[in-house]
User: Fold this.
Amino acid sequence: KDGFVTALWEINPGWASGVGYHKYDSILSIYDANEEKRQLDFVNAQLDSLKQFNVEDLSDNNKTDFQMIKNQLESTIFSIKEMKSSEWNPSEYNVCGAFAEILNGNYDSLEVRLRAFNKKMNAVPAYYETAKKNIKNPTVEHTELAIAQNLGGSSVFDADLKAALEKSKLSAAEKKEMLDKAQVSIKAIKDYAAWLKALPNKTPRSFRLGSALYAKKFNFDIQSSYTPDEIYKIAVDHKKDLHDKMFVLADKLWAKYKGKDPKPADKLDLIKQVIDKISLQHTTPEKFQSEIEKQIPELTAYVKAKDLLYIDPSKPLVVRKEPAYMAGVAGASISAPGPYDKNGNTYYNVGSMSGWTAENAESYLREYNDYILQILNIHEAVPGHYTQLVYSNQSPSIIKSILGNGAMVEGWAVYAEKMMLESGYKNSDEMWLMYYKWNLRATCNTILDISVHTKNMSKEAALDLLTKEAFQQQAEADGKWKRVTLSQVQLCSYFTGYTEIYNLREELKKKEGDKFNLKKFHEKFLSFGSAPVKYIKELMLSEE
Assistant:
């Protein structure tokens, strides 16, 4: 494992920097034929060394690590030989984020970081020249994204760099050298964007992946015991079940919110009218962040009082305004310290609505109304992502941190929402109705992603699903359509992971009967780090 990780960072310097391993910060990889051969040689050599181990002889911790390493290596071969997104996705070529991380980092002195930045700039022109050679029939959507993101991000080499140089102790000559190189970098970025705009692309590739590639990518990314077809059927049934439960609640709440208004004949219409009314209860743009800050200690106290899970008080969660380089999509996200910085702060990034029209802000706040904001905080913070990631970083294995399984991570956060409500958190008909609406989002993410990429679902049908059947605001639905055209499979991780975790819990409950202890289940489950649920399940059931 140690040998694998050391070699992995050497061959993927950009990824290394991203997880806080900064030895190779000054290297910018150029994806040409030589680089592709290096990647494949590395993978084949590593797969060869795995053959000397018999999985059954390994410890529980190493069994999951073995599977995760093997999956990562085989997934790389699939990416290079079958997916080939380096040919059709021009947005894969973008240096801005990597350079921004060097400037915004606090892992070394500013001067050390700026010198890495300086060396790394040497490769920028060749990087983009190689990109132009690699691209063939790109998709229209990824081309537009590449142009917008590269042009937007180029400020890293302009205002951001100038500000950092002013603060630094570098000599005047070094500063001048860097500013000159930065101009060359900006020119390379702008040339790339201009080249993409002018590219004659008579037969652009469709952004839809198609069933065969989709099924393989699903297996590598989600590592589920379900196939895409199986999880699709489960999601469609679950959506119907949620609609039935929502109708019962909305029908009961009708008089409270709609008085003597006649009830519509259409069930979904009735649900929507009640939801729309309840959604008017929300905070203001100014108080959005302070409302979140106020709720975190309440959630922590509740988890403690109900004895649902141990939460380590020594690992702080800091709520902050979303940093500028992450901005663009308001909302909430977690930035957790990587395995090389376990004691760093975990940040809960909260998007700001400054500069938004009153109409957009209102639509957004209705989506994140007083009920859903609490569910969002359970998902992102306690006992969702923040709590899980603290456990994950304590897991004895760096493999589970760096190759963490997205479906387990997102699945846990979705599971946490339901578990909290089941335990009695803020119990009311309104809370449950809004929870079901929120759970429809994860459910419909899966239906949407599989339908769009393997069943040719149209944009119109997609927006219909999201606004009419999942009761989403128009702005939310438009954003999701854009996301499904630019990504594949990731949208399935929420519902797939949740389904597998929930089913595992119910299976253990049945087996253990009166002996089943919820807190023990949670702590045991999280102790395996961010491994795929199917492997955690094997280990937990074998221990039984």
Notes: The chain has a mean pLDDT of 94. Residues 228-258 form the longest helix (31 residues). DSSP finds 26 helices and three strands in the chain. The longest strand covers residues 317-321.
